[in-house]
């Protein structure tokens, strides 16, 4: 490998000092939040899946066991997590984020996105591209020893081409998994087109979940009436299900709807979508109405779920 030269060490340390200052890592609360950098990092990892084993969390983050334990106690006291013992192995402690915990993470995630956007806004398009490429080089060079680490999802706003992807993936997945016909694709296309043409950015929003730079999930928050938001078109690709991505997308919707001034949120779904129903129940939604209907080539039972914000 060769000997590391002193000026190389100095250059790395200089960059570390510069980066921690620019990103505000030394501030009392990260991104003007009540969380430290370590607490925010722990919250991020917990939000990536439904349940996390404490030992796995400790190994992933490389954090001191005592510090992790104290942080989890604080999180539990604040209602951000729930702790339990593994039914398979009582020696293992499990941690699951609550709805409040996922909402806290969604808020931190939005603040982090805003900070990055503000940093990049002062650069030309060419400089932004060079910066991103250089950051990728740093991650690739220093991350070789961590190649087996869990992959992280990114929740972002819409980009050109995303709306077409939402229509296409809804049509393909619901035809494959439930045998729904093209009338469902037509419904999704109308919903997406209406959003694109008429949405109010102050009161409506949509998100794409990415893994390794490709979309793997989506959700929309639209206006139902002046006081009610509607969650629509929740989608998670089959290979990424079970990692808490659907729960995270729903939490993003709830946090936005609350900040937009809505007092309640509703959604329409069908009883055959059992996995989605479990996500809605965990997020605090309650079933308020059911009605039989024939749609998409099948006899179905439509359901309306609602929760206060």
TrEMBL record:
Keywords: Transferase. SMART domains: HTH_MARR (SM00347). Gene3D superfamilies: 3.40.630.30, Winged helix-like DNA-binding domain superfamily/Winged helix DNA-binding domain. It comes from the Bacteria. GO terms for molecular function: DNA-binding transcription factor activity; N-acetyltransferase activity. Transmembrane segments: none annotated. The keyword Aminoacyl-tRNA synthetase does not apply. Residues 1-147 form the HTH marR-type domain. Residues 153-309 form the N-acetyltransferase domain. This is MarR family transcriptional regulator. It comes from Jiangella ureilytica.
């Amino acid at each position: 490998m060769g000997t590391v030269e002193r000026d190389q060490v100095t250059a790395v340390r200089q960059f570390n000092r510069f980066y921690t200052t620019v990103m505000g890592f030394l501030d009392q609360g990260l991104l003007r939040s009540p969380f430290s950098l370590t607490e925010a990092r722990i919250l991020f990892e917990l939000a990536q899946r439904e349940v996390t084993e404490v030992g796995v969390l400790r190994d992933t983050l490389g954090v001191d066991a005592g510090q992790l334990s104290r942080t989890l106690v604080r999180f539990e006291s604040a209602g951000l997590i729930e702790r339990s013992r593994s039914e398979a192995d009582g020696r293992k402690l499990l941690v699951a984020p609550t709805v409040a915990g996922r909402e806290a993470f969604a808020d931190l995630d939005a603040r982090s996105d805003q900070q990055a956007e503000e940093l990049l806004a002062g650069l030309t398009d060419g400089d932004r591209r060079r910066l991103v490429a250089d950051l990728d080089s740093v991650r690739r060079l220093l991350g070789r020893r961590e190649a087996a680490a869990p992959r992280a999802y990114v929740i972002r706003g819409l980009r050109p081409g995303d709306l077409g992807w939402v229509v296409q993936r809804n049509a393909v997945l619901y035809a494959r998994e439930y045998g729904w016909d093209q009338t469902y694709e037509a419904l999704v296309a109308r919903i997406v087109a209406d959003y694109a043409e008429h949405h109010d950015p102050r009161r409506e929003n949509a998100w794409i979940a990415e893994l390794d730079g490709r979309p793997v999930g989506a959700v929309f928050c639209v206006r139902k009436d002046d006081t009610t938001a509607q969650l629509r078109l929740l989608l998670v690709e089959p290979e990424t299900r079970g990692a808490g991505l659907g729960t995270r997308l729903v939490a993003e919707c709830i946090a936005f709807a609350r900040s937009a001034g809505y007092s309640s949120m509703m959604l329409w779904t069908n009883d055959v979508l059992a996995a989605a129903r479990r996500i809605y129940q965990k997020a605090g939604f309650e079933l308020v109405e059911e009605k039989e209907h024939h749609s998409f080539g099948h006899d179905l039972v439509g359901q309306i779920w609602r929760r206060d914000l």
